[in-house]
Amino acid sequence: MLRRGGLGVDNFHNWPSQVGHELPQEDEERLEKLFCKLDKDGNGKIDISDLSSALKEFGINLHYAETFIQRSDKTQSGDVSLVDFVHYIREHEKNLRLYFSHLDKNQDGK
């Protein structure tokens, strides 16, 4: 179980109304690991500085960092909390699965 800056996988269980429902443990761990990698300064929030620094390592344009922050920052605070991050990622993963299922006409997963 991860712990960083007061964050922990257990925190997901304390926010059922904000996250929507309890996540499987493997999803909790996967998303928190990703969040912690992006939270470069370890303050428990991802801001434009954290995200652009992390994305720069992969050669990804700053524009994508700005877009991500704008779309996932529900409170318009300029940063993204773990709860907002999980909600945003889960919604996008759900949409990708839906799009893929529409494209995968014979349902073979390819």
Describe the structure in your own words.
With 110 residues, the protein is mainly alpha-helical. It has one domain: Recoverin, domain 1 (Orthogonal Bundle). 58% of the residues lie in helices and 7% in strands. A two-stranded antiparallel sheet has the order 1-2. A hairpin with a 2-residue loop joins strand 1 (3-4) and strand 2. It is globular, with a radius of gyration of 15 Å. The N and C termini lie far apart (34 Å). Residues 1-20 have low confidence and may be disordered.
Number of contiguous helices: 6
Strand order of the largest sheet: 1-2
Strand/helix succession: EEHHHEHHEH
Shape: globular
Low-confidence sequence ranges = 1-20
Question: What is the tally of beta strands?
Answer: 4
List keywords for this structure.
single chain, 110 residues, mainly alpha, Recoverin, domain 1, two-stranded antiparallel ribbon, two-stranded antiparallel sheet, 4 strands, 58% helix, disordered N terminus, calcium ion binding, EF-hand-dom_pair, Calcium-binding mitochondrial carrier protein SCaMC-2-like, EF_hand_dom
